[in-house]
Write a structure and sequence with these properties.
- This protein has a domain at 67-197: TIM Barrel (Alpha-Beta Barrel).
- It has 7 helices and 8 strands; from the N terminus they run αβαββαββαβααβαβ.
- The chain has helices at residues 22-31, 48-58, 95-109, 121-124, 141-147, 151-165, 179-192, and strands spanning 36-39, 61-70, 86-92, 113-114, 116-119, 131-134, 169-173, 196-198.
- Strands 1, 2, 3, 4, 5, 6, 7 and 8 form an 8-stranded mixed β-sheet that branches.
- Helix 7 links the parallel strand 7 and strand 8.
- The longest helix has 15 residues, at 95-109.
Length: 217
């Protein structure tokens, strides 16, 4: 359907994940008759300007964001370079939000960098009202808690994000997830009054697909 908006998209700036150039993404979105698209590369917003120019050229509304590497606390993060840094999708709602994400990106690659450009819970406090946040893919903190059987901590985490971001926080569902995980995420969202949104986590050989309208519950 043409009213579906891709909110989790990787371009060539997501090494070993995305393939398409920002211009190609905008062209595919236009060809699908869709009105908007996000760019959410792994730990970088380097494609923002190219994506903006491409979307303007093709009459598509650009949504600027990033798939950040999140840990609850930098101090408590493991010294193991292979330790998991969780995925968290954040989109700018406005110009102020975009500037905040640029500053956060700069910090993540500076004082917060350790094998990955990391962000922590404390970094999120200044973003409320100017961004939207998706709980993330199977590699997110929330999903990992559910997959690990820690339902209590998962509920606490979702409550904390909802408390901070309100209606700008969404549970993210993906077709690649195990059915049990998606059901658990939906159940958690229902119990806490958090809406759900569907994404594909596409490297954009997939953006030619048309899908049902983003599901909100």
């Amino acid at each position: 359907m043409t009213d579906f908006v891709h909110l989790h998209v990787h371009s060539e700036y997501s090494l070993l994940d995305g393939m398409s150039r920002p211009l190609e993404i905008a062209e595919i979105v236009k060809a699908n008759g869709q009105s908007a698209c996000a760019i959410t590369d792994h730990g970088t917003m380097a494609g923002t300007l190219q994506f903006q120019d491409a979307c303007v050229k093709n009459g598509v509304k650009p949504i600027f964001g990033c798939e950040f590497y999140y840990v609850p606390s930098l101090v408590a993060d493991s010294d193991d370079k292979k330790s998991e840094r969780f995925h968290l999708i954040i989109h700018a709602k406005n110009q102020v939000g975009l500037h905040k994400l640029f500053r956060l990106m700069q910090r993540s690659w500076g004082s917060s960098f350790y094998h990955k450009p990391r962000i922590e819970w404390a970094d999120l406090q200044d973003l409320a009202g100017d961004v939207t946040v998706l709980s993330g893919c199977m590699g997110s903190y929330l999903s990992k808690l559910i997959l690990g059987g820690d339902e209590s901590k998962a509920e606490q985490t979702a409550r904390e994000f909802k408390s901070l971001f309100g209606s700008d926080y969404y549970i993210e569902l993906q077709p690649w997830n195990d059915v049990a995980l998606n059901n658990s995420l939906l159940s958690l969202g229902d119990s806490l009054g958090i809406k759900a949104v569907g994404t594909i986590d596409c490297p954009v050989s997939y953006t030619h697909l048309t899908l049902p309208t983003n599901r909100e519950v």
